[in-house]
């Protein structure tokens, strides 16, 4: 395990990210992953934090889950015939069905990426 150090008072101190820095600019998947690590895998979270890799891990989780959710939502919409014609025919129903597809896709992405 490699760590970065800084000098302080004649001592080498490990450079650790603060909780606020680690949580800055995180999306919903990253926040869910952080909460999962806190509650279910505290040793892994502590290790990532000590290595200075927690923020990167959470950002990668966010990007992967977001991409997966977008892809799944598009595939579900296509399989349900939610195209431009359906949008023009009944915009309210199309919007409700698209929201349902997006919610299902986000849930699936969370289960596969966040809670893995």
TrEMBL record:
- Give the protein name, as stated in the record: TnpV protein
Q: Whose protein is this, by species?
A: Adlercreutzia hattorii
